[in-house]
Amino acid sequence: MLRLSSSTHASASTARRMPVCRGGVSTSSVGTSSRASAPTAVRSRRRLAHASASASAASPGDSPPSSSPRHVSLIQGASRGIGLEMVRQLLETPDAGLPGRPAAAGGHVVATCRDPANATALNELAAKHPHRLTVVKLDVESTRTIVDAAETVRNKLGRVDVLCQTAAVLHVDKPDFKMRPETSIARLDEAAALKAYRVNALGPTLVTKHFAGLLTEGTRLSLSESETSGGVQKNKHAIVANLSARVSSVGDNKLGGWHSYRASKTALNQLTVNCAIEFDSKRKKHPITFLLLHPGTVDTDLSTPFKKNVPAEKLFTTERAAAQLLQIVGAATHADTGKFFAWDGAEVPW
């Protein structure tokens, strides 16, 4: 079982009470201007007014980076649900639930989704945090968008330290395509099964393939930065955290059914473990850590048709689910690579 921190996240309100420097003008410079000569004081007031106006579009503390970020978190599937909440917490919760990665608290966040133009909540976060959040188009069913997204991140940021993959499909109800969890083999549909495999298993693995170089660079830079800063960064290896599900477990399967979803998540487990072996420290100079995570039953669109039968205490909000999963990612070390953890840190049987 992964040992998680018992401390709760520091509130965003605490961060807002801290003194901040906006637009490059500190509180001490305001006091100095009152003692300056008249022309200098006027110029100082004008600079202060201009700086305040410039800062009003961004949230407190969201100043332009002075150099390349020391930590980049990428959330794949970030337009809603757990992914969106992960982005929000990484930006607005000071500790960000990554206890072994202090650089993440002020690091850069990349949020990917299929349709950025219509991702309203995500774009609102981008407007609040223009210097810390980059929104990128990525559709796990389109290899071209995966390749383009990797190139965008490479050109802008040059590294990825944490990659959390949350996109998944369980049911679809569109005029031209229907998909439901099968309660019988008689209801197994070829198109639905192939879509489940593409979105839930192959898609995340292709993202890993095309972002592997950026993740390796994240490990290399983190190791180098840790040496120069006296080892402050505890967990130095880049991490890929793929959201799986308990129903993927063969050993825990007592109910049957849900053929396409179960099989696709089981395939994701196998592919993730394969990657963990390939990118292990025994084989690579700059290894990558791979985790599988079961978030529990979360109140999202994916669980909507089924949550009425879930006891209230077992139906997690996206806020709770995201916080729990980020805690696991932050606490994990390379010794945990290839493991499958539930939301409480307990290992899930294969």
TrEMBL record:
Residue segments, region Disordered: 1-72
Compositionally biased region (Low complexity): 1-42, 50-61
Entry-linked InterPro entries: Fungal_SecMetab_SDRs, NAD(P)-bd_dom_sf, SDR_fam
Pfam families the record matches: adh_short
GO cellular component, as recorded: cytoplasm
Signal sequence segment: none
GO molecular function: oxidoreductase activity
Protein name per Swiss-Prot or TrEMBL: Uncharacterized protein
Species: Micromonas pusilla (Picoplanktonic green alga)
Lineage: Eukaryota, Viridiplantae, Chlorophyta, Mamiellophyceae, Mamiellales
